[in-house]
């Protein structure tokens, strides 16, 4: 079963606004990662935050991790139409290499 | 260029006709995995391999086979495809090296194979 659950399932905003997506998970993790998927294409890794980190930035992306609440959020600032895609969180635990993916949030940024 | 390639990208076939989807990576990654993606069900892992000759079932292995004879290749075999295997399939790979910050397990995905079984 999927460990990650994402919220909201779909999000529609205007260009220039910020987009926030949330991810919750159930067990302890090594790290949590966010991926992006353009329609019908392969997932692309965006950012990784380790279990001992609380916040991480990469360009217009800001990720937070709250291990006590088992949740993470991805903030995309100053969104662009090109940010339109589905965004997935994925958790890594143990040493098998396996990632557990959430169901994803579909983001639409209107020009 | 570091990449994961899959072939074919699109395939329409009929029930029962054996098929193989190839996957190859050029990053010397130990870990490789196959996923299927269906609307409303997200990404589900079919099989994975932690290294050559080491494979294991994922969450939805029924109806699929894999092999890992070489480090770079991880083909997905459907011996007798059925319509419920119509889906979008992704291969992915990752390094199992543990760096100074710990494990990463960041996966690199292929472009996908859209399979339709009639």
Q: Number of helical segments of chain B?
A: 0
Number of strands of chain B: 11
Name the structural class of chain A: mainly beta
Note the gap between the termini of chain A: 37 Å
The major β-sheet of chain A equals: 6 strands, mixed
The backbone outline of chain B, from C-alpha atoms, is elongated
Most residues in contact: chain pair: A-B, 25 and 29 residues
What percent of residues of chain A are in strands?
over 45%
Kindly state the mean pLDDT of chain A as a whole number? Answer: 92
Shape of chain A: globular
Please tally the β strands of chain A and state the result.
11
Average residue-wise pLDDT of chain B: 93
With helices defined by DSSP (H or I, 4 residues minimum), what is the helix count of chain A?
0
Biggest β-sheet of chain B, characterized? Answer: 7 strands, mixed
Extract low-pLDDT stretches of chain A: none
Please report which band the strand proportion of chain B falls in: under 5%, 5-15%, 15-25%, 25-35%, 35-45% or over 45%. Answer: over 45%
Find the structural class of chain B using helix and strand composition: mainly beta
Oligomerization? heterodimer
**Ends distance of chain B:** 36 Å
The parts of chain B where pLDDT drops under 50 for at least 5 residues are none
């Amino acid at each position: 079963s999927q460990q990650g659950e994402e919220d909201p399932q779909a999000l529609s905003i205007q260009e220039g606004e910020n987009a926030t997506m949330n991810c919750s998970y159930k067990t302890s993790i090594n790290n949590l990662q966010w991926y992006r998927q353009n329609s019908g294409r392969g997932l692309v890794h965006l950012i990784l935050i380790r279990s001992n980190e609380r916040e991480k930035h990469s360009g217009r992306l800001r990720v937070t991790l709250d291990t006590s609440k088992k949740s993470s959020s991805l903030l995309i600032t100053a969104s662009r139409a090109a940010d339109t895609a589905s965004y997935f969180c994925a958790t890594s635990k143990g040493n098998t290499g396996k990632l557990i993916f959430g169901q994803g949030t579909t983001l639409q940024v209107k020009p | 260029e570091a990449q994961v390639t899959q072939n074919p990208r699109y395939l329409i076939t009929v029930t029962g006709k054996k098929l193989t989807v190839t996957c190859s990576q050029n990053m010397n990654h130990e870990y490789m995995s196959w996923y299927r993606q269906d609307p409303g069900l997200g990404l589900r892992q079919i099989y994975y391999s932690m290294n050559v000759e080491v494979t294991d079932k994922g969450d939805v292995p029924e109806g699929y086979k894999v092999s890992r004879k070489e480090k770079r290749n991880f083909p997905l075999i459907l011996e007798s495809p059925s319509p419920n295997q119509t889906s979008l399939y992704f291969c992915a790979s990752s390094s199992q090296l543990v760096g100074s910050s710990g494990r990463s397990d960041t996966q690199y995905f292929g472009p996908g194979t859209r399979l339709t079984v009639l």
